[in-house]
Design brief:
Helix content: 25-40%
CATH architecture of one domain: 3-Layer(aba) Sandwich
Structural class: alpha/beta
Mean pLDDT: 87
Order of helices and strands: EEEHEHEHEEHEH
Number of strands: 8
Strand content: 15-25%
Low-confidence stretches: 1-15
Strand order of the largest sheet: 5-4-3-7-6-8
CATH class of one domain: Alpha Beta
CATH topology of one domain: Alpha/beta knot
Largest sheet: 6 strands, parallel
Length: about 180
């Protein structure tokens, strides 16, 4: 089942889009990362879920600057802790993005309305959560000398794979020039 939302793009006046995915940030610490992730969520019709404590206030300038004028259109929900998140979402299917996983994000089949969780920048998702959900832990391949990728980059990489697997449902797949026309139009 898809959640109805509205497209605020400059090319359409409030057309309907369908939210199919959910991004979960477990105790994010850097406001600019959360702002960037919020903007990506708005651009893809994805809901953002924030599990407290947050390392910043959501009204900080850096969050809104990174999210720009899209922040007011973000479908965002806050939770007091991980248990609150699980309970309020009726034990959803959650993929846990972690450098510690044994399978990559391209090895799994994401479904509509799945949740993809990312941990805080300094420590990731608590291992207590990971060991209880090993079959749903996924990683982005990288060299072993690198501890991790930037959080907002990681979210974009995994989210777009999930959306690709769903045929980019509801997303505009072709772009438009502003002043000129493509030669083959």
């Amino acid at each position: 089942m898809y959640r109805r939302a509205y497209d605020y793009s400059p090319y359409s006046q409030y057309t309907t889009v369908y939210r199919t995915m959910n991004i979960v940030l477990h105790q994010p610490e850097i406001p600019a990362n959360t702002g960037n992730i919020g903007r990506t969520c708005v651009a893809t019709g994805t809901a953002l879920h924030l599990i407290e404590p947050l390392g910043f206030h959501l009204d900080e300038k850096s969050v809104k600057r990174a999210g720009m004028d899209y922040w007011e259109h973000l479908d965002v929900t806050r939770y007091i802790n991980y248990e609150d998140f699980i309970q309020r979402n009726n034990s959803p299917r959650v993929w846990y993005a972690t450098t510690k996983a044994r399978q990559t994000y391209t090895d799994v089949a994401f479904g509509p309305n799945d949740y993809i969780m990312f941990g805080k920048e300094s420590a990731g998702i608590p291992e207590e959560i990971l060991v209880e959900n090993e079959q749903y832990c996924i990683r982005i391949p990288m060299l072993d000398e690198i501890r991790s990728l930037n959080l907002s980059n990681s979210v974009a990489i995994v989210l777009y794979e999930a959306l690709r697997q769903q045929g980019f449902a509801g997303l505009e797949e072709t772009g438009h020039l502003h002043r000129l026309s493509w030669k083959n139009d």
